[in-house]
Amino acid sequence: MEDCIVVSNLSKSVQAPEGRLTILQDINLNVKHGEGLVISGESGSGKTTLLGLMAGLDSADSGEVTLLGENLSSRNEEQRAAIRKGQVGFVFQSFHLVSGASALQNVMLPLELSGFDQSEQIAQDVLRQVGLGHRLTTAVERLSGGEQQRVAIARAYAIKPTLLFADEPTGNLDSKTGSQISDLLFDLREQAGTSLILVTHDESLAQRGSRQVKMADGHIVDIVKH
Amino acid sequence: MRYLMKILIPRIQAWWLLWLATVITISIVAASQLFTHRISLLLDRQASELMAADLLISSTEPLNDAYQKLAEEYGLKTATTISLRTAIFIDDEPQLVELKAVSSTYPLRGTLERKSALLSEPQKVQQGPAAGELWIDSKLAARLNSELELGTLTLPARWILSYEPDRGGSLFNMAPRLMMHVDDLPQTGLLVPGSRARYRLLVAGELPTLQKFEKFVRPLLSEGQSLQTLETARPEMRNALDRTRKFFALSIVLTLVIAMIAIAISARYAATRESTRVAVLRTFGISTLRLVRYYLNQMFKVWLWSLPVGLLVGYVAQFPLQWTLGQWFGSRLPETDAWPYVLAALIGLVSLLGFSMPHVLAVLDTPPMQVFRQSVRMVSRKKTLILIFSSLLTLFLVLMLIVNHLQLASVLFVLVLLMAAVIPLILKLVLKMLQQYAKNRFWMFQYVITRLLSHQRNALFVMSGFSLTLLSVLIISQVKDQLIEQWEMQLPANKPNYFLVNIPADEVDSLTRFLQQQQVPSSQAYALIRTRLVAINQQDVKAIPFDNDRAQRLVNHVFNISFSERLPEDNVILDGQWFSDMPDPAGFSVEQGMAESLGIEVGDSLRFSVAGESFEQKVTSIRSVVWENFQPNFFILGTASLLETKPQTWLLSAFINEQKQSVLKPLIQQFPTVTLLDISEIMQRIKGIVNRASLALKFFFAFAALSGIVVLLSALKTSNPVREMEVALLQAMGANGQQKRASQVVEFVLMGLLVGVFAAFFATLTSWVLGAWFFELPFVFSVSLWVYSLVVAVSVITLVGSLFVYRSFSVSPMSLLRS
């Protein structure tokens, strides 16, 4: 199977009051198409930074990231966004939905940005798929936390992405809702054949990935196949 | 020192936006109060040019020198005049003249104008005739450069007196004017005990000193002596000034309301950011009372630091205005006292506490759990009520401080509340309507509309603030234009630029015929009967204790009454019936202001005295009169059957344009007793005042626009975190730079368009309503108004907004993961 992400010798540090602080050091990692990779670790282990660098949301100090065959290291933010367009979806811990807009409109947004026709029809279908067919025109701030995360998942899957990045998708939800959301994420991944890179500190969620990358202090300390 | 700094400096980082909004509020009040106060003083002064002084003491007996000495001791300028009617002989014919003897310092305000020949250009001069010369009325132009006998003195007529500032008042009973130096008067022998002369002491100076002088001298006045200030002088000028002041007050209030919105929005933003801090302090067991004290202390520091900057900005801001307006006002603005600064400081404190503390109090409810888990905080109903009550109370207090008049403050309060409710509602409705358009796509039109309707944007506040500002500017322009147009329509309807007064009754027909032959348009002639009010309801007016100066003046002075079958133009019957509606016409119709001053109602009886004969009738109607319309207006009108036999002269108005100026000479020759009054000069002066007042008002709305920008900045600052997240989200979804920029710029353009359309639409509507209902002008759609409104609104909002959010475009999408 071909690799959709290749990470080589990746390092990242930031300026802190006490001096330069290394967040990631010399990371090497490959993600295969259709794989469900989970990155886990304690707070401050560097897992979210790694996810951001793999998705091209940030640039590294050294090393390389190849996303969907494109080397991100030499690209600026505009060019990295162009690579993500229509191919990469995101699910965030804080949902980041457009408040005031309906569930349907939130899902239509990435479709229209990526130039899809029939955005309304596609968005309706996906929302029905995540169990929100009855809440299409409801403003998102009126939805429960679990429903909002379902809208976010529908938004991510609507464009039929090759890759989906999920950052602590159950972090703001109670355990029952969190479990439903993780079921939904993995079920959709299997149906669509999308690669999933999920960051979590929840060990039970981490067990659901086909591969688990354990991180500590900016290093990969273990890789476990499930 | 460090301790002192710690005590005095607020947590700048947390409160800087609130500090800025307070600075702006203080600057607006300081600048506008300083400027309006000074303009008001100048307008008073310009209006006082019509009195040739700021204050005058008038008497029928020679005035005691003590008043003049006293005024000079106060550091005030003085001048004296003595006016009397006398007869001179011209070609062995007696001619009644109004002789005025003036001191070398006359006039104290305004200028005199003189001409070397009837049709030559007038020269402006600051002094009257020198001793040994005479200036004569244009009516006596034929006598220029000849010797005239004044009693026992012969003086050469050197100049034609074409304008004197204080020749207002009794416009319609003037015989031709002769002006001489006061030192020459005793040699004429005209001034003997019992002469019907009017002695005046003219006084001018700075307002505070004048007020002190007035306060001191008023109780010393004896019977027959009266003191006039601008306020008690001519009714048309008093009305114009009162209205101007109310306009000023209204403009400041509107400007301030927008600044207060800025305080409220920035306070809400600052308070929300304090919630975590409050939660932490709560976990340490800090009591609510201590937190309240802490935040009160912070607010006080914010105010303390706003004060010097706000006052300084306010002080400096008046100079560009003064510099720009200098050429309009043609003179330096008078200095003012410290009150504008005190008021600005006070309003700054009241606004800051009133609009900020409720937000802070609401945040004090933050549970300590917030430290561990961020959650959406709901403000309790009680706290919401406190917030509303505090805002309303603050608004009312500020209004009272600004206008210092309970009734006006109450009206403005209701007006502001209505606007605060109606404008955002209308804008919201428009946005909701737009939301129904092109619903099958979200990006980008619906996306932008959704953002504008979002509470986080405060876009409705921003748009309301700008709409109000722009609408006010447009309305001022429209009303000013309509006002002037209406005046021009009132006058040019029959184009009266001259009043012909002192027409003997038997010359009315021949004069009218003369004007017709010369093709000079003229108006209907009115009789003028000089009379004195002697009794109201059979009670001698001298015995009635009136509580106002105006009433005293009305009963002490001779004034003109007239008769007319038709209700004069612009007069409206407020109570009772006009004569033509009565089966048996009789009685008097009284002007509303006079009726109020004297406490006269329909049914009261009035007794007048004319040349020793008295007559009494009941009041049958009360009328409103438009004093500013430059038509002959009368306090009292009666019926022809009652008044036509009384001693009278007549007047009429005529339009004598530049081509017809040659008519003046034969007119004066054929009708030597008739006096010509050129009113176009006065009209031009009044127009000048209206134009200047309008320009000054527009400058205040430049301040309002600044407040609008502060509201926009506060709203942008408040919504910036959300805006950055939106940009980051679009970026994560693969939006390109153009899409990101467009999402923000289109939002500002749409806001500008809505504001521009709102302001232009309501300005057009107001213009139509005023034109149709008040000014009776045909409606003309103004394309330039719409273009101006749209261009200004779109460019200001888009430019300021785009510059401010420019940095948001470079925000890293990593912030989505870290938030």
Short structural description:
Chain A is of the alpha/beta class and 226 residues long.
Approximately how much helix is present in the residues of chain A? 25-40%
Q: List how many beta strands of chain B DSSP finds.
A: 22
Name the chain pair whose interface involves the most residues. Answer: A-B, 36 and 31 residues
**Total domain count of chain B:** 4
Approximately what portion of the residues of chain B adopt beta-strand conformation?
A: 15-25%
Largest beta sheet of chain B, briefly? 11 strands, mixed
Spatial gap, N to C terminus of chain A: 18 Å
Structural class computed from helices and strand pairing of chain A = alpha/beta
Quaternary class: heterodimer
Q: Characterize the overall form of chain A.
A: globular
Notes on the protein architecture:
The complex is a heterodimer of chains A (226) and B (819). Chain A is 33% helix and 31% strand. Chain A is of the alpha/beta class and 226 residues long. In chain A, the strands form two sheets. Chain A has a six-stranded mixed β-sheet with strand order 6-7-8-3-9-10. In chain A, β9 (211-216) and β10 form a beta hairpin. In chain A, α3 (103-113) runs parallel beside α5 (145-158), α4 (119-129) packs across α5 and α5 (145-158) runs parallel beside α6. The longest helix of chain A is centred in the C-terminal third of the chain and has 18 residues, at 175-192. Chain A is globular and about 50 Å long. The mean pLDDT of chain A is 91. With 819 residues, chain B is α+β, with helices and mostly antiparallel strands. Chain B has four domains: 1-49 and 237-404, no CATH class; 51-233, no CATH class; 443-493 and 679-819, no CATH class; 523-654, no CATH class. In chain B, 53% of the residues lie in helices and 17% in strands. Chain B is built from 22 helices and 22 strands. In chain B, strands 1, 2, 3, 4, 5, 6, 7, 8, 9, 10 and 11 form an eleven-stranded mixed β-sheet that branches. A six-stranded mixed beta barrel of chain B has the order 13-15-20-17-19-18. In chain B, α6 packs antiparallel against α10 and α8 (288-329) packs antiparallel against α9. Chain B starts with a helix and ends with a helix. Chain A binds chain B through residues 48-49, 51-52, 55, 57-58, 77-78, 81-88, 90, 92-94, 96, 98-101, 105, 108-110, 112-114, 119-120, 167, and chain B through 440-443, 446-447, 450-451, 453-454, 456, 722, 725-726, 729-737, 739, 812-814, 816-819.
